[in-house]
């Protein structure tokens, strides 16, 4: 592999869940937010926003929603949001009727998907910049444990939807790098390999990866190694998602349409 400072930053990325109790200075915050704004945006719609959660009671509420107490201790805490609400306001000022999701052109499933993509790209840009400055981060999919509560707590209006959270701070732990599967299990040439030979290759290669993962110790549970990768997949694949995790009805309640 070739390398440089950016590549080394990305290769050494690890989730940090314990932070030094020190605020992040305003210049650093401005830098991180500006970097996020420079991420790619589909059709230049800029259809995402990020809410910085500063109030401690709100941080505590986020920790309750995410079932992770460390969320409340993050010096910097953001929720990234798919946002077609701001574009609706802009379109209204130009005489476009955006009151009806049936006719509002940015409320359809494609734009919902693209707005989510844009929010993730912006979050990743901010996360990478934070790591390059010696900070630590953890991406918070756990905030989606209760989307209704999240929408209520942060007053998310019509045509917005929560995507992911991001906690940032000075690291107070040094977790091991989590293993990554062999590249040839995730990178393919020209087509997706789905024939019998490919299935056999996946099975054979996963066995070795299982052993590597099983030797990894997560700081959240240091007294035992984590489960083998295939066991983790099987466990999650056999679970039924509860109603709180159903995206379509909640997104439709926010004005998005999945039938168009």
TrEMBL record:
<dbReference type="InterPro" id="IPR000415">
    <property type="entry name" value="Nitroreductase-like"/>
</dbReference>
<keyword id="KW-0288">FMN</keyword>
<keyword id="KW-0285">Flavoprotein</keyword>
<keyword id="KW-0560">Oxidoreductase</keyword>
<comment type="similarity">
    <text>Belongs to the flavin oxidoreductase frp family.</text>
</comment>
<dbReference type="Pfam" id="PF00881">
    <property type="entry name" value="Nitroreductase"/>
</dbReference>
<dbReference type="InterPro" id="IPR016446">
    <property type="entry name" value="Flavin_OxRdtase_Frp"/>
</dbReference>
<feature type="domain" description="Nitroreductase">
    <location>
        <begin position="11"/>
        <end position="170"/>
    </location>
</feature>
<protein>
    <submittedName>
        <fullName>NADPH-dependent oxidoreductase</fullName>
    </submittedName>
</protein>
<feature type="region of interest" description="Disordered">
    <location>
        <begin position="241"/>
        <end position="260"/>
    </location>
</feature>
<dbReference type="GO" id="GO:0016491">
    <property type="term" value="F:oxidoreductase activity"/>
</dbReference>
<keyword id="KW-0521">NADP</keyword>
<dbReference type="InterPro" id="IPR029479">
    <property type="entry name" value="Nitroreductase"/>
</dbReference>
């Amino acid at each position: 592999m070739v390398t440089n400072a950016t590549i080394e930053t990305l290769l050494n990325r690890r989730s940090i869940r314990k932070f030094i109790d020190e605020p992040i200075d305003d210049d650093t915050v401005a830098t991180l937010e500006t970097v996020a704004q420079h991420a790619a945006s589909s059709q230049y719609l800029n259809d995402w926003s990020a809410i910085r959660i500063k109030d401690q009671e709100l941080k505590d509420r986020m920790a309750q929603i995410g079932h992770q107490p460390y969320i409340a201790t993050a010096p910097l805490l953001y929720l990234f949001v798919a946002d077609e609400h701001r574009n609706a306001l802009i379109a209204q000022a130009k005489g476009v009727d955006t009151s009806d999701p049936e006719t509002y052109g940015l409320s359809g499933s494609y734009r919902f998907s693209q707005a989510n993509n844009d929010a993730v790209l912006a979050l990743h840009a901010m996360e990478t910049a934070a790591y390059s400055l010696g900070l630590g981060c953890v991406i918070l999919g756990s905030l989606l444990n209760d989307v209704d509560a999240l929408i209520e707590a942060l007053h998310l209006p019509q045509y917005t939807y929560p995507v992911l959270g991001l906690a940032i701070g000075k690291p107070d732990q040094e977790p091991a790098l989590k293993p990554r599967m062999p590249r040839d299990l995730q990178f393919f040439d020209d087509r997706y390999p789905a024939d019998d030979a490919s299935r056999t290759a996946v099975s054979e290669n996963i066995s070795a990866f299982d052993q590597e993962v099983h030797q990894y110790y997560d700081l959240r549970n240091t007294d035992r190694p984590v489960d083998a990768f295939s066991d983790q997949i099987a466990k999650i694949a056999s679970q039924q998602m509860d109603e709180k995790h159903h995206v379509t009805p909640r997104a439709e309640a926010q004005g998005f349409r999945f039938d168009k």
